[in-house]
Amino acid sequence: xxxxxxxxxxxxxxxxxxxxxxxxxxxxxxxxxxxxxxxxxxxxxxxxxxxxxxxxxxxxxxxxxxxxxxxxxxxxxxxxxxxxxxxxxxxxxxxxxxxxxxxxxxxxxxxxxxxxxxxxxxxxxxxxxxxxxxxxxxxxxxxxxxxxxxxxxxxxxxxxxxxxxxxxxxxxxxxxxxxxxxxxxxxxxxxxxxxxxxxxxxxxxxxxxxxxxxxxxxxxxxxxxxxxxxx
Length: 231
What we know:
It is a single chain. The chain has 2 domains: 14-24 and 98-225, HAD superfamily/HAD-like (Rossmann fold), CATH 3.40.50; 27-95. The radius of gyration is 18 Å and the shape is elongated. The two termini are 28 Å apart. The model is unreliable at 1-8 (pLDDT under 50). The chain has a 6-stranded parallel β-sheet, with helices on both faces. The longest helix has 18 residues, at 78-95. Helices cover 41% and strands 11% of the residues. By secondary structure, the protein is of the alpha/beta class. It has 9 helices and 6 strands. The protein has helices at 26-41, 46-52, 64-73, 78-95, 102-111, 124-133, 146-149, 157-165, 180-190; strands spanning 14-17, 115-119, 142-144, 173-177, 193-197, 214-216.
């Protein structure tokens, strides 16, 4: 995969952003939240708890993953479960902060008249909380979640919904995300310009048959790819 830094896509009229690990580091916050849960319990291993969320048995943010972890340790009690869930959510949200340069970049795009939307697989409640916590919510004209579009990525429904709301044809839109499969692939399928947020790819993807038009080392490189002159 080759970076195309410096290539300008003057046709871009709207930018759709994934949220978690594209605008901010959710995985880092999630790992620390798991550590705090384990500290509260006084037993177990935080990476083992984190891995529960990756199994695909429940959703990536589903509290039943915590319940299963407690069951596995043999320490499940309803009150313990409730405290663990509250600790997990409070710590995770408290630690979510926008990546360096994200706010300034979104303002630059907004000032240039480029439409902005979020297309995320997070639940609407979680998406709004994180965008409000990071101070980014007012930059986006629309926030699309599976509850809004009806389907999760890599199905293109959330992207299409956002493009319709921004009154932009796919060929004049850009999709930015940290997942080659869930963000870049549907963007390419629709004929959008695609920008892979390699800085947030905590899984270190290496999928040969999914290639982005642009590889971002940081979010602040975006304006140079949509025809906005360097300031």
